[in-house]
Write a structure and sequence with these properties.
This protein is 51% helix and 2% strand. It has helices at 12-29, 47-66, 84-107, 127-151, 158-163; strands spanning 111-112, 125-126. The longest helix is centred in the last third of the chain and has 25 residues, at 127-151.
Length: 182
């Protein structure tokens, strides 16, 4: 059921934090053997490059939409050299930039102020547009990676797959279930 008024919509920051947590847990728990697999239908991209792409796409959006409003974009990561640990740290940094964009939009009445760097220069961007883009984009790539691993005959650890099914915010200190789903 779609809420009838914006006031009834969930907090976009909480939705973003959940998506970011799922992505980071996915990156950290993914076996190293999967990182070098080629992703079909994506020319010249390995799983590592797809995962790094998630961070770098965040950086581009932060730079494009936030630069004029004082939001600093984190540094991009090298697609061929990033380790799992480096990528997890980078994703945490880029997540803070996305949260800053969401905060800016919420403080401005639900829309990011116009940016000269954005394709529609004189139009504000809805906070939910930004959030929906990232949630869908990251879920798409996580799904690609799960399919590639399964096609290669690799059985992903339950911690990797279970993280994909947690869509609501968890209390701090709780862990992902490790049994039952895969």
């Amino acid at each position: 059921m779609v809420p009838s008024a914006r006031d009834e919509w969930p907090d976009p920051r909480a939705a973003w934090r959940t998506t970011n947590r799922i992505t980071i847990e996915f990156v950290v728990a993914l076996p190293a053997s999967v990182w070098t697999l080629d992703v079909p239908a994506v020319p010249r991209r390995t799983v590592r490059e797809i995962l790094v792409h998630l961070h770098n796409a965040r950086c581009r959006w932060i730079k494009t939409l936030g630069r004029e409003h004082g939001i600093k974009a984190p540094l991009r990561v090298d697609q061929r050299r990033a380790t799992q640990r480096q990528l997890a740290v980078a994703l945490k940094q880029s997540s803070m930039g996305i949260e800053a964009l969401l905060d800016l939009g919420l403080a401005s009445g639900g829309e990011l102020p116009p940016s000269k760097g954005y394709v529609w220069r004189n139009l504000p961007v809805d906070v939910w547009h930004v959030l929906a883009y990232f949630v869908a984009h990251e879920a798409h790539h996580r799904g690609q990676i799960v399919l590639v691993a399964r096609q290669a005959g690799l059985r992903l650890p339950p911690a990797v797959v279970n993280a994909l099914w947690w869509w609501k915010e968890r209390p701090k200190g709780t862990r992902t279930r490790t049994a039952g789903r895969e």
